[in-house]
Design brief:
Layout (H helix, E strand, L loop, with lengths): L3 E6 L2 H9 L4 E5 L13 H13 L3 E6 L8 H13 L4 E4 L14 E3 L8 H9 L4 E3 L6 H10 L3 E8 L11 H6 L16 E5 L4 E6 L6 E3 L4 H7 L1 E6 L6 H21 L10 E4 L13 E2 L21 E10 L2 E4 L10 E6 L2 E11 L2 E4 L10 E6 L1 H9 L2 E12 L4 E8 L4 E7 L8 H12 L7 E8 L7 H20 L20 E2 L8 H9 L3 E2 L14 E5 L3 H4 L22 E5 L2 E8 L4 E6 L1
Parallel strand pairs: 1-2, 1-11, 2-3, 3-4, 4-5, 5-6, 6-7, 7-11, 10-13, 20-23, 24-25
Antiparallel strand pairs: 7-10, 8-9, 8-27, 12-20, 14-15, 14-19, 15-18, 16-17, 16-19, 17-18, 20-21, 21-22, 26-29, 27-28, 28-29
Helix pairs in contact: 1-2, 4-5, 5-7, 10-11
Length: 607
């Protein structure tokens, strides 16, 4: 397997767009039991997408990655078989109870919700039959190398998109305070909400800021380092994002990967087809909360977005004055009618639309909420977005085309780089052309007109320049191309599920609620491996009061410059350290902040 660019798909249409923009694989949610409940797709959607994927020798992965209750197991098993019949190439799962069921013969990928965050855990997953582990987002290169050295398993890592502030699979905040479990695909994202920071004496130190919201991820400058550390699957987050995001981000990362593969071809590519983008991708133009490399190099750096948890876009200037609908900035900017301006009001991102602009002046639709001294950002670049949507993207497979003349006929043979061959043959007598060079050029031109197919002419051979009418050449080309496309789209054999290893041992003998055991089959699975489930999943408990509901590498003490281990050269806010316990409060919800400085973690306990 080569390096695989893996794109999200909210639906089949977006999945096909991702493939044509250069994705080597697409992941999409089944009708139920996906970790993005709002992005479920039917078997027909998968059939449409897998036909397209086979054109490019690309893959389609289906998510069944929520934890499951007992009454859902049979429906999940049936769904897995429906997805198999629809042509998917692997199942992404979290609940180990599924391994006790009659699943279809497909590779299993361990969802990041299965807590793939240590050499011991990933080696365990490899031993019990997983072909791939989707690593936790917060892994550093050193941690990735350690996992790679400990387990014979494909490793997939996130390279772009939103970051969960909590450790995936072990975040119970939404379920505990909103009644919507992230492990059931229902996360309400309370981490993006405004919180108060309160000290042990009840004094409010910070009011209404997004203290748990962090920046988004962009590792597009570090693909080679990740590949050398053991990553083969480069995953884009975003099954709830729109088509603009998919087109832009897939295009951006495809270009980056192609540059790497041109220089290091031994790394290999996971699918075929050359991609041409008639636009310049720019990941800063689509939804993002500020882009970072998070903890990839193992260095702690500020990650919070306390002022706002939404998409602000590019900073354009500070408001100096307002006169009617005219906003004057502190610098000249290039804005256009239709651009969106964003600013922060009452700790939320809001905005207006530009009607016209010149120099330092912007004339806006609604100036009522803009104040002198405000920072303005452009979060919609109208001209760029218009160009993105209009830009053509083509993915083509080079083919070898040969024209020859068996007795009493003309025959066209078309072959792609993987050895798929299609032929078209027309009966008739074809005499030698009077203009040999002209006939050769005419035939090559006619047979290169592959614009409405997935193919492009790579090599042309003609046995001898006999005269063939252009209309006959066009018909041959259409028939052969249709035949080749049908062959490429036809179902083909898929690798089966990885076998079990004998030495499958749990990293821990006793399993608490953080192992997310919610059904008898999961209990049976762990008991077969000498594990003891001492309490059920959080979703089956009446309360998580006084329990840790989130563990995160984001640290409020560090963000405020209070960390005793790591100096923060640029604290978000300068406040004297109060000492004692800190709390986060939002309405009736109160979370105690615990700081594990040895492991460089923050834990939130529900009080």
């Amino acid at each position: 397997m080569g390096l695989e660019l893996l794109a999200p798909a909210r639906n089949a249409e977006q999945g096909i767009l991702a493939l044509r923009c250069g994705a080597d694989a697409v992941y999409m949610g089944g009708a139920r039991f996906g970790a993005r409940q709002a992005a479920g797709c039917s078997a027909a959607d998968f059939e449409q997408l897998t036909r397209e994927a086979r054109l490019w020798d690309a893959k389609v992965y289906a998510t069944i990655n929520t934890i499951l209750f007992d009454h859902e197991l049979e429906d999940a098993r049936k769904l897995a078989w429906e997805l198999y019949e629809a042509g998917v190439d692997a199942l992404i799962i979290q609940d180990m109870g599924l391994l006790e069921l009659d699943l279809p013969p497909l590779p299993l990928h361990a969802s990041t919700q299965a807590v793939c965050d240590s050499p011991e855990k990933v080696a365990f997953l490899a031993n019990v039959g997983f072909s791939r582990a989707i690593l936790a987002r917060e892994q550093s290169l050193d941690e990735i190398r350690a996992i790679h050295n400990a387990a014979e398993i494909e490793l997939e890592g996130f390279v772009f998109g939103a970051l969960c502030v909590g450790e995936s699979g072990r975040c119970y905040l939404s379920g505990a305070v909103c009644g919507r479990s992230g492990n059931r695909g229902e996360c309400a994202q309370p981490c993006r909400a405004p919180w108060n920071l309160v000290d042990a004496k009840g004094r409010v130190l910070i009011t209404g800021k997004h203290l748990l919201s962090i920046q988004d991820l962009d590792l597009s400058d570090h693909l080679e380092e990740m590949a050398d550390a053991g990553i083969t699957g480069f995953k884009i987050e975003g099954r709830l994002k729109d088509a603009d995001y998919v087109k832009n981000v897939v295009g951006h990362l495809r270009r980056r990967l192609d540059v790497l593969l041109e220089r290091r071809p031994e790394l290999g590519r996971a699918s075929i087809g050359r991609v041409q983008h008639a636009f310049t991708p720019d990941p800063t133009k689509t939804f993002q909360r500020g882009l970072s490399t998070y903890r990839l190099d193992g260095i702690r750096r500020p990650m919070g977005t306390p002022e706002a948890a939404g998409h602000l876009g590019e900073f354009i200037g500070v408001v100096r004055s307002i006169q009617g609908d005219r906003v004057v900035l502190d610098r000249e900017v290039t804005l256009h009618a239709g651009d969106g301006l964003a600013f922060i009001e009452n700790d939320e991102v809001t905005g207006t639309v530009v009607n016209a602009a010149e120099g330092r002046q912007a004339f806006v639709q609604d100036p009522s909420r803009i104040k002198t001294g405000m920072k303005l950002h452009r979060n919609v670049d109208h001209q760029w977005l218009k160009a993105l949507r209009a830009a053509k993207v083509e993915r083509r497979i080079p083919v070898r085309v040969a024209l020859d003349f068996p007795e009493g006929a003309v025959r066209l043979r078309v072959e792609d780089e993987q050895g798929f061959v299609a032929e078209a043959r027309h009966e008739g007598e074809f005499s030698l052309a009077k203009d040999l060079d002209g006939m050769w050029r005419s035939a090559q031109e006619a047979l290169s007109r592959l614009g409405d197919t997935p193919f492009t002419l790579g090599e042309f051979r003609m046995q001898e320049p006999r005269f063939v009418p252009v209309s006959r050449l066009n018909a041959l080309r259409r028939e052969a191309a249709e035949g080749l496309e049908a062959q490429r789209q036809a179902p083909r054999s898929r690798p089966g599920r990885r076998g079990l290893w004998q030495a499958s041992r749990l990293p821990l003998p006793e399993l608490d609620f953080t192992w997310n055991v919610a059904n008898p089959m999961a209990i049976s699975f762990y008991e077969h491996l000498a594990g003891k489930v001492i309490e059920p999943a959080a979703e089956l408990q009446s309360t998580l009061k006084d329990r840790v509901v989130m563990t995160t590498r984001h640290c409020i003490r560090y963000e405020l410059g209070w960390c005793p281990v790591h100096a923060n050269p640029d604290p978000w806010k300068h406040l004297p350290e109060p000492g004692g316990t800190l709390f986060l409060e939002n309405g009736s919800t109160r979370l105690e902040c615990r700081f594990d400085c040895r492991r460089c973690r923050m834990e939130l306990v529900l009080r």
